[in-house]
Design a protein that fits this description.
alpha/beta; 9 helices; 10 strands; disordered N terminus
């Protein structure tokens, strides 16, 4: 099932993005990014000169066989790992050159991350988990924006319940709101539906699609599931550390076919 596309509203006004440095509507850019591990004959080249731009308000899925470099790509793009070569640009800021304290601050303010395992704190209720990034940053919660998020994730009736009182899908909705609460420029999602049943996964994917269409959020998602990838505006296929194929707004069957050819 695909969501009906809505007219997008400016991300700078709705999703709270700071437009400074977002040249030509580019949220994040990878310039000839390389990442390797090990030395000598044991060197593993996880990324081999990847160059890619991600537009503001776009939804990109990243797919590929095991070991193709998917996780390394989003870890470098999100500033969680440093490339050996090339540049990762968040607006006009080169993430790969920032010292650790500034990098941590930049990630906290401008990058959101949705994990497959939810990573909610069991002692906190849903609301407290959502606003935790703002609290850790010493900031003040924007109650109006929080209200929008709670309405968007559909947990108005459960906002004061702890994770143990929520279903897996509800917990993932809390994790999505937590990733959005600081109004990041980019949200990365690492297999966000991998631990969910089919119906719940579809609901979560519709929610992710809605954050792009209605809130102007920039979303980059790693997934192995062609159905999940079909919710994206485009799909990048990696193999041996390189982007080797791509499709735009394609059905799951076409995506699955291309992925199968890479896995042979």
């Amino acid at each position: 099932m695909r969501l009906r596309r809505h007219n997008r509203t400016s991300s700078a006004n709705v999703a709270g993005h700071d437009p400074s440095g977002l040249e030509d509507g580019v949220a994040i850019e990878l310039r000839n990014v390389a990442r390797s591990f090990g030395r000598g004959q044991n060197t593993v080249h996880a990324l081999r000169g990847v160059s890619e731009t991600f537009a503001v308000g776009s939804f990109t899925a990243v797919m590929g066989p095991s070991g193709s470099g998917k996780s390394t790509l989003i870890q470098c793009a999100a500033g969680l790992d440093r490339p050996n070569g090339g540049q990762v640009m968040l607006g006009d800021v080169e993430l790969s050159r920032l010292k650790e304290p500034r990098l941590t601050e930049t990630r906290r303010k401008h990058i959101g991350f949705i994990f497959q395992a939810f990573n909610l704190l069991p002692a906190l209720d849903a609301r407290q988990n959502i606003v935790l990034p703002v609290r850790l940053d010493g900031g003040k919660v924007d109650e109006a924006w929080l209200h929008v998020l709670v309405q968007q994730i559909g947990l108005q009736e459960r906002i004061h319940q702890r994770p143990s009182q929520l279903s897996g899908g509800q917990q993932q909705r809390v994790a999505i709101a937590r990733a959005l609460v600081s109004r990041p420029r980019v949200v990365f999602a690492d297999e966000p539906t991998g631990a969910l049943d089919t119906t719940t996964a579809r609901n979560i994917l519709e929610l992710l699609r809605s954050t792009v269409d209605s809130l102007g959020q920039t979303m980059i998602m790693v997934t192995h599931d062609p159905v999940a990838a079909s919710y994206a505006d485009r799909v990048l296929f990696l193999a041996d550390g390189k982007v080797v194929d791509r499709v735009t707004r394609s059905p799951a069957e076409e995506i699955a076919s291309r992925l199968t050819r890479l896995e042979r």
